Amino acid sequence: MNLPYAEPFRIKMVEEIYQSTREEREQWLKEANYNLFNLRSSHVYIDLLTDSGTGAMSDRQWSALMTGDESYAGSRSFEQLQQTVESITGFKYLLPTHQGRAAENVLFSVLVKEGDVVPGNSHFDTTKGHIEIRKAHAIDCTIDEAFDINDLHPFKGNINLEKLEEVYKSHPKENIPFCLITITCNSSGGQPVSLENMKAVKALSDQYGIPVFFDSARFAENAYFIKKREAGQENRSIKEICKEIFSYGDGMTMSSKKDGLVNIGGFIALNNEEVFRKASNFTIIYEGFITYGGMAGRDMAALAVGLDEATEFAYLESRISQVEYLGNKLIEYGIPVQKPIGGHAVFIDSLNFLPKVSREEYPAQTLGLEIYKEAGIRTVEIGTLLADRDPATRENRYPKLELVRLAIPRRTYTNNHMDYIAAAIKNVYERREEIAKGYKITWEPEILRHFTVQLEKA
Questions:
Q1: Is 227 a catalytic residue?
Q2: pTM, entire model
Q3: Which of 56, 365, 370, 442 is 20 to 30 A from 82 (CA-CA)?
Q4: Residue 354: is its pLDDT beyond 90?
């Protein structure tokens, strides 16, 4: 008989987690002002808030920590990281940062100015925040199929070329600093972008003289989907596909806490020396010297190993298969989720799940709170709270989808945990008709409100 699939690793250390009562969880939510970000980690049984910096490092990465070079300038660990990044991406200039949003801050300080527009595929929250805080505008050019959860388009992260060209035609070139391709596209459900689409976006952008940059937090997962779903790519290695991906861009930002397999870190990688020199000044101002930029030498050493491991097929197959396992369980139970299942998370459609909760009462946040009350599982809202208010009108922006994201940390939970998550959500689904009221805001900051917003029951 054929042997069943087994993970390409074994567990070396475990961490105890506390299983609370429903009464405890309801009290903790009240104390947290119904914001899941405000919960203590000790009050969470299974934490799916994010896959950013929450995974388990390998023995090779822990070994690399011990050999990190903490020199302020010219660190050996920086050289190791630079060589690894250039090998995988082809970009020769590297600026480390303490995480992905810091990379955005540095790069956008060079490239984005008031009145600019930045087209792309469903910019994530911090990306949009860094654009809008500079009084510029993010324009979503994602294909329409991305917003139909039942459409099985294999590359729902793709950019619609007609939408993109309309942006290029309707705005002066000097007001379009770059086109941004997010891989995979988090806000549309962890959906990948095809090589064919990247190549076409690059060709169109070159025609108009517009640079192309990648938000690359989950680039390896995107490469895996290209290998599995795109014609002619099945026999190529992940590293070969990655090299081609980045050949269609002028640079990248990276949150290394995702496909770098580390708990902290990020970077900018470029081939343009002029942009590199300008960004270097902002790195020194905001982060640190250009050969550490907010990262300890040991963390750069662990990241160099992590990038190598994350671009191997066996690891990616294990990681994405677990996400797919959970997604298929939820589909089996009739739960409305974004299909096909994305790379780093399963996304539940809260509008179909909780049809009685009005959009003004934040159905995705309501569903996330119900899942936590049910089983101590922390998720995150990818909906109206995250979409924030329009900078000009201060009215709520209502995205096409109201999603609850179940982000799966890498190499952290077992499939028994996935079964528990699926059963808990099934229990909530079976009592969905009883959930008719949501929540209202009692306090919020000016921007990026979902991190710190305070709510009460409506």
A1: no
A2: 0.95
A3: 56
A4: yes
